[in-house]
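Q: I'm building a small set of examples for a reading group on sequence design. Run inverse folding on the following structure and report the sequence directly after it, with nothing in between.
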């Protein structure tokens, strides 16, 4: 665990750990909502899921889940396809 000084004033405790095949980062500010972020990749590597959970703020608990598709690298052209070859 580390403690960071934030630009808004105050300190935030930040802890990161591997848990059940994903990385979790928990941020606990002196004031405001606790933020729990979890990052996981599917077994085939095709998707990244980021789940953010805000707890203790004015609106209660809010969970946001974002799912990203992996970008496939373009095929490398053969040497004969390159200009000047």
């Amino acid at each position: 665990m580390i403690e960071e000084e934030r630009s808004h004033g105050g300190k935030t405790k930040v802890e990161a750990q591997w848990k059940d095949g994903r990385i979790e980062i928990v941020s606990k500010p002196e004031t405001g909502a606790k933020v729990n972020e979890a990052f996981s990749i599917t077994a085939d590597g095709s998707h990244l899921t980021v789940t953010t959970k805000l707890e203790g703020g004015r609106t209660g608990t809010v969970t946001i889940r974002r799912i990203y598709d992996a970008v496939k690298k373009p095929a490398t052209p053969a040497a004969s396809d390159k200009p000047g070859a």
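The mean pLDDT is 87.
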